Amino acid sequence: MSTPPKEVPKEAPKEQSGAKAQDLLADPAGSEPPQAEEEEEEEEGECGFCLFMKGGGCRDAFIGWEKCVQEAETNDDDLLEKCAHVTAALKQCMDAHSDYYEPLLRAEKLAEEQAIVELEKENVNSQQDQK
């Protein structure tokens, strides 16, 4: 006579740890200090560019520039005129911290070079049209 095969349990026995699964999922890395939670909440709605700018040595200069831009937009002021001084200060700060801001500085330089090429093309085309 053959003996029936042993039954294999379909589920592994559950541990009785006292912690609920949702508690473990809600904070898998452990509890964050209150200050870190506040900073995270503050930064949730911010764009990647803003987070990058605030992550370097020009955080304060960027925040000043950001406030100026918001004020200019709110008051329908000329952005270039109103914020020229803070824009220059931000650019100077970025140049001083070029190790961090190098990708943006490089992109800015490339955009400037491309704009010059486009202007030169337009100038040549306009001169040819006059002939």
TrEMBL record:
Could you tell me which Gene3D superfamilies the record lists for this protein? 1.10.287.2900
UniProt-listed SMART domains: GCK
Locate the compositionally biased regions of type Acidic residues.
35-45
**InterPro entries, per the entry:** GCK_dom (IPR012891)
Region (Disordered) spans which residues?
1-45
Q: Which Pfam families match?
A: GCK
Ranges of residues in domain GCK: 45-119
Tell me the superkingdom of the source. Answer: Eukaryota
Matches recorded under PANTHER family: F26F24.3-RELATED, F7A19.14 PROTEIN-RELATED
- Report the protein name in the record: GCK domain-containing protein
